[in-house]
Structures are given as structure tokens and as C-alpha cells.
Prior knowledge:
The structure holds 2 protein chains of 2 kinds.
Chain A: H1 3-18, H2 49-54, E1 69-75, E2 81-87, H3 89-93, E3 97-101, E4 134-135, E5 141-147, H4 150-157, E6 161-166, H5 173-178, E7 181-183, E8 185-186, E9 189-190, E10 192-195, H6 198-204, E11 207-215, E12 227-233, E13 236-241, H7 246-257, E14 264-267, H8 282-294, E15 298-301, H9 304-310, E16 317-325, E17 331-342, H10 354-358, E18 365-373, H11 387-405, H12 409-415, H13 433-444, E19 457-458, E20 461-462, E21 482-486, E22 492-496, H14 505-516, E23 521-524, H15 542-562, H16 565-568, E24 574-577, H17 584-598, H18 609-616, E25 617-620, H19 630-640, E26 646-647, H20 669-683, H21 686-689
Chain B: E1 5-8, H1 12-19, E2 24-27, H2 33-38, E3 46-49, E4 57-59, E5 65-68, H3 73-77, H4 80-85, H5 87-95, H6 99-104, H7 107-112, H8 118-121, H9 164-170, E6 174-179, E7 182-187, H10 188-191, E8 210-216, E9 225-230, E10 241-250, E11 253-262, E12 269-270, H11 272-278, H12 285-296, H13 307-324
Parallel strand pairs in B: 1-3, 2-3
Antiparallel strand pairs in B: 4-5, 5-8, 6-7, 6-8, 9-10, 10-11, 11-12
Amino acid sequence: MSVIKDAAQAVMKKAIEIAPDSIMPGGHPDPIINRKHGLIGAPISRIDGPLKVQGSARFAAEFPMDGLLYAALSYSTIARGRIATLDTSAAEAAEGVVLVMTHRNALRLKPTPLFMSAAKAAGGDDLPVMQDDLIHWNGQPIAIVLAESQEQADHAKSLIRATYDAEAGTTSFAAGKAAGLKVGNFQGEPLKHEIGDAEAALAAAPHKVDHIYRTPRHNHNAIELHAATVAWQGDELRIHDASQAVAHMAWSMAHIFGLDEKKVHVSSPYVGGGFGGKTLWSHHVLACAAAKLAGRPVRIMLSREGVYRVVGGRTNTEQRVAIGAQADGHFDALIHTGVVAMSAHNNVPEPFILPAQSAYAAGSFKLEVQVATLDMLANTFMRAPGESVGTFGLECAVDELAVELQMDPIELRVRNEPDKDPTTGLRFSSRNIIEAYRTGAERFGWNKRHLKPGMHREGEWLIGLGCATATYPYYRMPGGIARITISKEGRVKIEIAAHEMGMGTSTAQTQIAAERLGLPIGVHAGSNYHNPPSSVGWGSYHIEDYVAQAQAFQTQLTSLIVEGVFARHPKLKMVMLESGFTWLAPFVWRLHKFWRGIRMETPWVDRPPMEIVHSNIRFSLQPVDAPPDSATLHRLFDHMQSDELILFSTDYPHWQFEGDSALPEGISDDLVRKIMIDNPHATYPRLKQLAPV
Amino acid sequence: MNPFTYARAQDAADAVRLGAEKATKYLGGGTNLVDLLRETIEQPEKLIDVTGLSSDIQVRADGSILIGAATRNTVLASHAAVRTSFPALSRALVAGASAQIRNMATVGGNILQRTRCTYFYDNAGSRCNKRNPGQGCDAFEGFNRNHAILGASSSCVATHPSDMCVALAALDAKVHLRGASGERTLLLNDLHRLPEDHPELETQLNSGELITAVELPPLPMAARSTYRKVRDRASYAFALVSVAAAIELEGETVKDVRLALGGVAHKPWRAWKAEAALKGQRATVEAFRAAAEAELAMAVPLHDNAFKVELAKRTITTVFAELMEIES
């Protein structure tokens, strides 16, 4: 990969670090993070569960469209070279076939933007898709067939015949290593750290281990095959995708097809497993290009073989882990180096040194990932890229050292616990590994384990206890957008560029939204005229309207309480705005008495109306519809049996009752404090976060 | 997949009549054949669905069992008489594939399933003598961890993938056949062929001949039989090595023994040499190991599967020890 791309990635990484801090949970100014309604963690059923069980959750390959065509791909069978002949005549003549697209008749397209090369780049490699006769890996699509049915497309593609001018490609790891190595780059930074002279420290250490660990290549294998249903509507492109990155996908496809980003609409409401593999691959580009050429919508669903051909996975690794230690277990040297395979057009060298960068304190470090270049499918992210296989090597070596030192492997880890990040020097934002080990050891009965392996047998199983430290960083990716809509009925709709990949995201996000948006609902006098404020109909004069509004609030409150709104939503707060409050005490007495008498009629009203009003309803202060003397005011508050119901408000710019005085005369200092500060804070906690003006 | 016609046979006579036409294939549960159709490795013009044929399981007075070829694997595995009298067969069946596939797969189809050699399946990209006779074999020098160590030839190193057949081989099962020229019976051990120079010929079946039933002859010693499958993951994987075994003692001496191996050869591998080595010996771990050594002496491993030789020896030894309930 080029220097320019590396630099672009480095800039991207910095941008990610800076930008979203302002909305980082627990940071500033996110004022409602501390508001707790008990919704997060509540054991609720998955909201997508019934939909999936009924088959009504619509996945990418299930969107119906008029005139839909079905796609099948034909793949190269050599790893490097050129297409010499490509005979598509039998496929074109086959029943139901509408289009066979190859590099000879494909639309001219820009190369795929490589992931991390721009904020919303989503490609696994930066190769042009079907633009020339060059072959870069075994399995590269050489033709796409569109037909009226999937079976017709599959049959037709089996009739395509290709011959190649093959070049000597590099396809074995050994050959790739022999051809020369380079230092890997991840997120714009070289995967190389040296602190002190680790090799010398290792050589001098009284105790040491030095081993090679190998991990195989891993293929993505999500249950839902990679699929998309795509359609052009004029110059707008609609993609129903199986995606982990809808915003990235839209931007990248716009780039490839030379469109405005807003003209590409990508949706992905349900994903049948992502694991890092559901980003942009060549099948997307081919389906959209062929749909444009055919003038009809296209559904593409890769076969399982197709996933292995087109979608990258985790590369194999060969890792050396060497640790030099003192007799007390302290590490003098930690060496974690090795080689991974990568294609020339890719930027994901499995960064297996990530765990070693921050897991243990050591007197010296040598960490490096080198890359052997192979003619193969691009690598991509897969379930903890780097951490997964890197932890395997590192933690095996620590265990080997524990055996060498005859030391408890947990104790060895505890003794090398760093007080700050050992390679960057930064303090940890959170790190509870020692506590985790202590608690885990207690719960698993660690101290009862056999020191020699193979000592505990249950049936045909040998049972052992082991331990390993796992790490995973806090990643944030750019490109997302969120929209929150609250309707006047109080329904909240949240639209985010995130994905329900089967882990319950939509359910958890709903809980989080409900928790964090647990806002009071305000009811304002006469904001929306649908019905007259009283049963005698619309008034002819303002005064009728003003006076009747108190009745309107009473009937509204009666309805809310008796129909059971607060039984269903016991934490819901409502604030009556410009309602007045002198009517409140007799209204509540009346409601309360009738409830006591005939509550068998409304068994769902499970609390006395008085209690519901006290816990769930608040009233704005102005306009004050009470006489201007303090004795009457105090009696009114006394009748309400609470000093927590009234929230300070002005009626600015109206002065219907109080003129320019913000507070009624003659109320006690305690009540002023309640009205001005305590009650509003209890109702609107965000106010507390605001600096005093 | 190429276009084909489909017909459903009413009975065995009907099936054989329909199956006499050229380029015709019998279709059981379709768990293998449909894959082969999709990959265009099999290109029949006509499919005869034989799942409507006999799926009876008859337990006869002499202890033998006659199993209709259309019996689903799950049904056979859970049959009470099979579980008590031939536990190795029941265990082999449930070791195979997945529950969904076992629910579909038939006994006849299981016997006739084809190898899962990757190169056999890689229609467009690899050479295969089984798929295209005379083309060459890319498995021989390729990735051959799963391939044969016994009875292979330079033209083919593929293995037979069935678990069920390994148990049937050990249990002296017979296969009832029906063809245009009438009915006949073969030992399962004689049904499958070794590859030699013609790996495309996998069985002794004549063109259009149909498996109608499998017969388990009476074998009281099979009540003490089992099946052990060793594979790269604990479920839904083909055997690296599998062992079906039964043993009968007289005092401390091995009176009779049955042993077959899976995952090691082009056919379910009946271990005649090991059986001969063990008969009349004292039933000890050393004797089991020696018998295994005798069988594997003729093994010819490939570059990725030398481990199978030792793995097979250890698995044989362990399985006999388990049947004897002694520590291996």
C-alpha cells in the first residue's frame, strides 16, 4: 500500500480519536447519562424475536421487487495472470438469461475505496471491479449472469468457459516469506514497537521461553450468506444489503459509480451475522453495475463457495513469542514478532501484537508484524482482529513460562501487571484484570486445580483449568448518523446507521433510548385546537377560552389517570403548562372520592389518583389564578398536600395575571426554593448540568 | 445445475423400470446428490425419486434385521432393536452429518454417497480422475489431510465419507439389489471398490441397479459393539479416522472380533488383518495395539495425513479397551 494511503489512514485515526469524544458516554456534555429509569438491563424479550420466528423480519435477499433478476457469478480458477479467452455464448443463449456481464461490456467504474483510506471507505481492496482482463486471486469474479430465476442464472454461469495466460503467482506462505517481507501497517501506523534491547535482555535473562505459534486462515461463515437486492430508480441507487456499514456502503458505492452520496440509499434492518465480513465486496459492485446495464432490479446472493471466493477472512499467522524473566517472574523482555500473509491491494495485516502492546509490564519490548505478499483474496476484519490470534500466542507463552518458573500462572500475570500502558505510557481508563483473576479464581475453584495436566478425568473427557488475559480496545468508526423523532403522542423513533446482526442491538438500543429519553411530557393549554375546550363548544370570546382551559386540563387529567396511562407507564412524568392550579385540590378530592367508591370499574388504576398526581404530574407556576394574598396561597398549597407539584415558570411575554412580578407575593422562602430550584431539578435533571447564568 | 426430469417411483419394480433409461439417477434424501447436481458434477437427464419405496425395519426371529433402503437415517438410529442389538450402527449414524441431514438422508443413499474430496468438487479449478477419468489428481500433491492411507492408488486418494457404512462393514451387513436382470445380494464389504485405475467406478452395481434393502445378519456379539469417530471438530465434520468394533470373549481370550475403519480408504475398510491377529489372543491393551499395528502396516500416508496412521492405531486400541472397560 502506498505512503499516501498510509498517511490518509493515520489522519483518519486521529480524526476518530478527536471527534466523538464530545458525545462519549460519561464525558461532556451528555447531561442525561446519569438519569436512571431502571430500563437498561431489564429482562425484556428480543423485539426482533417474534419477527424472525414468524419469518417476517426481512433480510437482504428477501425484498420483493417487480421485474427482479437473479445473479450468479463465475470465478477465476488461477491466482495471477490474464483472461485469454472467455466464452459466454452458451450462457447468453441459455433459457431465461437477460445479461452476461464481463470486463468486455461492464460499465466503466472507479476502483473500490479501500477501508480506512477515507472516512466512509468500505472496500476490502482497492482494485477496480471487472474493468480489465487481469486476475489477482483465485476466485475473482470473471462474469456475472442475470436471469429470470436463480436456477437459470446458476445453470448459465456453469456454461461459461475461460482460459487464462497464467503467470507464476505467489500462493504459498513459504514462497511469500522467501520473496521478502515488509513491516505491516495498521490504521496508518507501523506494527512495530521497540523499547530497549529485548533480544539482549532475553539472552541475559535467567528464565526464558521462546516459541513459534501458528494460526490458520479463517473464513467468514455467517449464517446469512452475503446478499443484496439492488435497484436503480433514475440516477438513484437503492441497495437492500446484508451490511455492517450502511453509511460506508452508500458513500463507497457513490464513489465507485460517480454519484452524489445522497443518491445511494442503503438499508440493512436485519443481518444474519456480520463478524467483520459484511462490508463492501465485489458482488455489490457487480450487482449494481449489471442492474444498471440490464435496466432491472437485481438480487445477488453468494453461494457458500462464493463467500469464500469473494469475501476476505482472517489471514494465517506465524508468531514468535519469547519472554525473558527473573526468578520472581518479572519480565525482562517481551518479544512478539512474526509474519502474516496479505495481498498487494489490501491493508489488514492481522495485527497480532495488539495484546502484547498493553497486557504486561516488561523491561524491554520488541513487537513487530511483518507481511508476506501473496496473490490471494484480500484480508479483512474478523472477530477481534489481532487480539484473537495474538492473545493465543502471547498467553500460551506466558503459561509456558509459568511452567518453566514453576509458578502459578495467575500469580505470574499479577506480578507483571503494569500500572500504565507499557508501550505508550498512557494511563488506563479502566483495567480490572487483577480483580477479574481474583474473582474468577475464587469462583472456578482455581486453588483446587491439579498442577500437572491430565489428572482429572470425567468419562472420556480430560478436564483442566487454565487462564488467559483477553483485551479488546474501544473502537469508534466514523460515518454514522442518527435521527431521533418524538411524535406528539410521545412515540420515539430512532433511526441509526447501526445494525441488528443478531446480538440484540435493536432491543438494547430501544432500552437505552427509553432510559435516556425518559423526558417528562408537557401538556400546554390550547397548543393544538382539535376540539373545543369545554362541552358547550367553541367560545366566542377569549375569556371563555381562557376560563375553560382549566376544565380542559381537568378532563385531560381525568382521562389520563382513569384510562390507565400511569399504570402502564408508572415512571412517566407530565407537566401541565399554563394550566393554573387553584382548581387542583377540589378536582383531586372529587376524583379520589369517586375512585374509592367505584374503582372496581377500573381495576387497572392501581394507585389512588391523589398519589398518581403527586408522583407523576407537575404544574407550571404562571399564570397564577389565585387571589394575591399570602394566606390564601398558603392555604391552597396546604390543600394540595404537597409543595413539590409546582414548577417555576414565567408567562413571558404575556402578563395576564401577575403583571411583571415573577413570583406571587408572600410565599415562604422554603416554598420559593422548592418552586424555583428543587422541583424543576427533580423534573428536568438536565437543568442541573447547566452552568448558572 | 443442468435441467432434468423428475419422476417418483411407486415401488421397486417401477423404479428399476424407470431407471433402465440412460443418464438416470435414483434420488433418495438428496443430501449429497443435489449438491452434486448444483456443482454440475452429476449431470443426469432424469431423476427417479425412490423415497416412496420400502422404509420398513423388520426384526426377524433369528435376530437379523431387514432395513428398507428408503429408511431415514434418524429412524434407523433410534430404532430400539438396532440400539440394543447393534449399538455400533446406531452410534455411527448419529455421528454423521447433522440432525437435519439425518432426517432427510436414506440408508440406500448413504451407501451410495460420493467422496467429499475438495478436488472432486472443484469442478472448474482442479483435476480429478474420479470426476473426469484420465485427467489426473490434484489431491495427491495438494491438501490431503482428509485423504486415504489404505488401499489408495496413484489415480485417487479419496475416502468414502459414510459413518454408517463403517458400522455395516464391521457387522457383515448384506445389501439387497434389484436390477433389470433380477435380484441379488452382496456383502457390503464387496459392494464398494478400491480406486485402482478407475476411481470413477465406485461400486459393483450394474447400470440401473437399485439398493432395495440392507440386511443385518444375526450377530449376538454385536450387542457389545461401538463406533468412535475422530474429527477436526466435535460435530458436523467428516472422520479423520473412525472405528467400528465388536468383541466377544471366552474367558480372557478373544473368541471373535469385528473391526472396520472409516476416513482412511476409498471404501469402508474392514480390518481383516487386525481381526485375524486378535482372534485367540488374550484381550489386553498390548494385543489390541499389536492388532492395530498389523492392520496399519500397509498404510501409505500422504504428506498431510501421516498422523492418521498413529491416530488409527490409538483409536482402535482405545475402542477395544473401552468395550472391555479396561484402562488403555
